[in-house]
What we know:
There is one protein chain. The protein has a 3-stranded antiparallel beta sheet with strand order 1-2-3. It is mainly alpha-helical and 377 residues long. The model has no long low-confidence stretch (mean pLDDT 97). The chain is built from 15 helices and 3 strands. Acetyl coenzyme *A (ACO) binds next to helix 14.
Amino acid sequence: MINNSDRVVVRGLKDVAAAETKVSYVDFNGFLYYLGYNIDDLVGKVIYAEIAYLLIHKRLPNKQELDNFKDELVTAMHLPEPIVDSIKRTPKTCHPMDILRTEVSHLGEYDVEGKDFSEAANYRRATRLIAQLPVIVATIHRSRLNQSVPEPKREYGFAENFLHMFKGVVPDESETNVLHRYMTLHADHGFNASTFAARVVASTNSDMYSSVSAAIGALKGPLHGGASEKVMDMLDDINLEEEVEEYIYGLLGDQKKIMGFGHRIYRAQDPRTKHLRGMVEDLCHRERTLGLYNKCIKIEQIVFNRKKIYPNVDFYAAVTMDALGIPKEFFTPFFASSRISGWVAHVIEQYEDAVLLRPESKYIGEFNKPFIPIENR
Ligand code: ACO
């Protein structure tokens, strides 16, 4: 044990390794690995279900395993009726991330395997959560439009079903491909704040729903996954491309952070950015996307010239989501619907590690203050 006065506080836990992991590695030189695979070798060559399988089973599936996994996912793309009713009763003023957090917690009450916390049950639970989070997101959106959620179809893949259930129209192949890439890029990212929150909860041997609810709460914050919605607020705020410079200089002059820029780990370009920028470029035949892209390129140049910082995953993800026709308050729910595979993979790994995550603090308050009874205060 270390005496309180000798404790060294690492503010923000910067550079602290809190546990070992095999799930993913964020290299500050600008590389990201899932189970040893460089994401640059995966994006565009895999479908999202392969990545979800890789993260939770720690290896890529063969063709038969992938077919079975896709089948399991599509079969699980349903919600218990009380969850659907609860979503429908939620005030339309609630942010979708608040509803998602609540309904994932609610889902825990209807888990078909109840209190079976065996390893096998946890793998099945992880698969169900990967399948059900997007359905909660689709149900929130469609119930706000007073429209029903289309039934998932076995002949569609998982990402295709997600877009269909969310938008109510069958996506074309290019839209589905964009979603596979987006979900692959958002699936995991080391010990980010939401994953760490999930692992802290799992380390107490609490259940997977509690861990994921905590993760959703952390992801929602604008310093983490909530940044993509703020990026779109900023792009909406800048009326014309010609106004970008004045707008960004104004923010920087006021010591404000530019949303979608900077990163705790990367000292080089975030490796996900080039893929997302490329996806946006492919979608620039749409007039609105081209306009947003042009603003983004200008912002990127100005912020780099002034601060030497790069865009992070949330910057071009915002425009990608917009091009897919996703309303901005659903950007972070789509992020959560992808990151769920990483969260549950980490929760399973944390159960295996079986150690309570419980740091110390350095107390800087007073000692032995004289107690004053309430009538004398
Ligand atoms: N805009 C302007 N300056 C920035 C930005 C930014 N977005 N990010 C970092 N900086 C500057 C800081 O002002 C600080 O400068 P200083 O040393 O002169 O004071 C320096 O860079 C270091 O910044 P910190 O906030 O201390 O870095 P930290 O590692 O704690 O924070 C974070 C990382 C939270 C991501 C930060 O860059 C930020 O707030 N970015 C904006 C929000 C955002 O885009 N979040 C999404 C991150 S990706 C994700 O979570 C999915």
